[in-house]
Design brief:
The chain is an alpha+beta fold and 194 residues long. The chain contains nine helices and seven strands; from the N terminus they run H-H-H-H-H-E-H-H-H-E-E-E-E-E-E-H. Helices cover 34% and strands 19% of the residues.
Length: 194
């Protein structure tokens, strides 16, 4: 499984490092119109909460990501996200996981649903370290293998998920905090609950 994900990361490679999260370039005239406000998450990632280290270490040090960290462990992705990367992770908060249908998180953490959990988690990861100031709106390939759509009208969004905090740096990439869990098309959530 980890080898397969590593191959996908290499395959996505360079192309995804060109996408722009906030579409805010160096042009001062356009900055006000295109820069998305940074809104604190329910439990914001603060300087005090940030740890040095890889993406897993940084996420583990923040109480906003306990569900995400547990899911990464259950999916067997810890070693991958501790690897050299670089990775860009759109990290859903605990509140984002809590907003999923009742029982879904528990179902996803079961060993028999590891493949579905892996699909969901890798759908939140883009190869390359993409800082907020580096990219433009559009379709971006994920490590999972399908695209996410970034928009910048009225704030930065991935589909309907708001980017609520950007540029939480790690030694092997960057985390951008989002307020919803992204679910790839074709994944039958109802079947997981049944």
């Amino acid at each position: 499984m980890i080898t397969s994900i590593s191959r996908k990361i290499v395959a996505v490679g360079l192309a995804s490092s060109l996408f722009v999260l906030a579409a805010c370039g160096d042009d001062e005239e356009s900055t006000e119109a295109t820069t998305a406000p940074t809104v604190a998450a329910t439990t914001p990632v603060t300087d005090e909460a940030m740890a040095e280290g890889d993406i897993v270490a940084v996420a583990s040090a923040n109480p906003s990501f306990t569900t995400l960290v547990a899911a990464v462990g259950a999916a067997g992705l810890v070693e991958t996200l501790q690897g050299p990367g670089p990775f860009t992770v759109f990290a859903p908060t605990n509140d984002a996981f809590a907003a999923l249908p009742a029982g879904l998180v528990d179902a996803l953490l079961l060993p028999e649903n590891k493949d579905a959990l892996t699909q969901i988690l890798t759908y939140h990861v883009v190869a390359g370290k993409v800082m907020a100031a580096d990219v433009v709106a559009g379709d971006v390939p994920t490590v999972q293998g399908t695209n996410i759509t970034i928009t910048t009208d009225g704030g930065v969004k991935i589909f309907d998920a708001n980017v609520v905090q950007t540029d939480v740096e790690a030694s092997n990439g960057v985390i951008h905090v989002i307020d919803q869990v992204l679910v790839p098309d074709g994944l039958d959530i109802e079947a997981l609950l049944g």
